[in-house]
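(Fold this chain)
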Amino acid sequence: MAWAILILAGIFEIIWAYSMKLSEGFTRLTPTVITLVFMILSFGLLATAMRTLPLGTAYTVWTGIGAIGSFVIGIVVLNEPMTAMRMIAAVLIVSGLVLMKLSSN
């Protein structure tokens, strides 16, 4: 159950990162409110997952989900560049997440 909670926390991190971008430096009310709500939810779920999962594993996976999800949103939704170097970096992040998950069994 802790892994499901952690994955949901990571998804919420993607949502708040994207809405923070849309808030334009917290100058737009609706995206700012969405950012704050999903930050609180994401941190709360991360804290819940950390009751069971090791700190290093939970935090690394949570951050990685947010990083990869935000990377994909940036490319797909915000038309950010998809260069070879950025793709290699994303593959390395995912590889690290898989290894972290495997090491916690």
